[in-house]
Automatic annotation (TrEMBL):
This is L-rhamnose mutarotase. It comes from Prauserella endophytica. It comes from the Bacteria. Pfam families: rhaM. SUPFAM superfamilies: Dimeric alpha+beta barrel.
Length: 109
């Protein structure tokens, strides 16, 4: 049985004409947004962007529901999600509401 934080991976798709701006925005994530992620249990968080716009997100957390709920309650997250929503294809609602964890099928520790 796995111990330690849960590894969470999710996929979204960035609009092809918005990829450069998406990269620029993530090179300058607001310090208060970074702090909110840490405070609400998002650890080892990474985003990977493929040339076709496929965005792969990965983070670790002790409690996924608490991490998502914690961020949903943060004012800075509401501002960030409102700004980021325009970058994504086929998304109803805020980007963080589009997080559907992929099932993990293998992990080498």
């Amino acid at each position: 049985m796995a111990t330690g934080p849960r590894r969470v991976c999710f996929l979204l798709r960035v609009k092809p004409d918005r990829m450069d701006e998406y990269r620029r925005r993530h090179a300058e994530v607001w310090p208060e947004m970074r702090a909110a992620l840490r405070e609400t249990g998002w650890g080892n968080y990474s985003l990977f962007l493929a040339p076709d716009g496929l965005l792969v997100g990965y983070f670790e957390t002790d409690d996924l529901d608490a991490a998502l709920e914690g961020m949903a309650a943060k004012e800075v997250n509401a501002r960030w999600q409102a700004e980021m929503a325009e970058f994504f294809e086929n998304l109803d609602g805020a980007p963080d509401e589009g997080i559907v964890p992929l099932p993990e099928v293998f992990h080498l520790d």
